[in-house]
Amino acid sequence: MTSPRRIGLIGLGEVGQVLANDLHRAGGVDLCAWDRLFAVDGSEPWRAAGALPFLEAANSMAGAVRGRAVVVSAVTAGECRAVAAEAAEALTPGTFYLDLNSVSPRTKSEAAQAIEAAGGCYVEAVVMSPIAPKRIASAVWLGGPHARDFLPLAQSLGFTGAAVYSATIGAASAAKMCRSVIVKGMEALLAEALLTARRHGVEDAVLASLHDVFPVGDWRKLARYMISRSLQHGRRRAEEMREVARTVAEAGLDPWMSRGCVERQQWAAEHVEALSHEALTDMLDNMLARTPAPAPQRS
């Protein structure tokens, strides 16, 4: 019988690295990882694999998932289905497949079909908070028919914020996607509004007005934080927002706002160097310096 603490990890990006370190701290874990960027010398996953001595870096997807009691998928939204299909080819029957990716309910269902057809036990999972503050103990909602059976093992591995949301695959992801319309949408809206305001020289007035309408504290600090998330993770957020748009469309609505958010998040990722500035106005100025100014209007 496979040990419940033999774990395969697919994806060694930001979230994957957090999980790898925290699973190791849980103790008694045999951890093997695979990332397609292991083949790219100097890539972030390649560097991370070399810096984590407790981690076995597999030479293939099959090497990471075969003979494991739990496989955790922590890749980008665009890779979710393809990764599940590839993992299914080598999955040991009875393996819990924990899908942490931020995708639409339909994408989760399609990934689940591939895993279940191979004899695996698919568990939908969505992270309902930023990963950094609580790391593996973040709020994670589980879904699907195997979620309740998986919960005690998940909690013993350090997923102390995990809870079963629904026995139906897709419900937890629907909640996550709708949350992302707001969270990622606010990031995009703040960037667009304050970049425009800065170019017109009215950003202080805009921020003061926002505080009057929504007294949530220091709007300047909040805006800097939210825009910085797009700068740092814009490409990943753009992929997620494509899945959000798919979720909205699946509900019979036109995803006008979500499609626009995809473009703004993708654009923000091209200005990552602005993160070097601590002050909001300096960060905005850095972004604007690489954005063509409008032609002067003729009188």
Keywords:
N-(1-d-carboxylethyl)-l-norvaline Dehydrogenase, domain 2, 53% helix, 299 residues, single chain, 8-stranded mixed sheet
Describe this structure in words.
The protein has 299 residues and is an alpha/beta fold. The chain has two domains: 164 residues, NAD(P)-binding Rossmann-like Domain (Rossmann fold), CATH 3.40.50; 112 residues, N-(1-d-carboxylethyl)-l-norvaline Dehydrogenase, domain 2 (Orthogonal Bundle), CATH 1.10.1040. 53% of the residues lie in helices and 12% in strands. It contains twelve helices and eight strands. Strands 3-2-1-4-5-6-7-8 form an eight-stranded mixed beta sheet, sandwiched between helices. Helix 8 packs across helix 9. It starts with 5 loop residues before the first strand and ends in a 10-residue tail after the last helix. The model has no long low-confidence stretch (mean pLDDT 95).
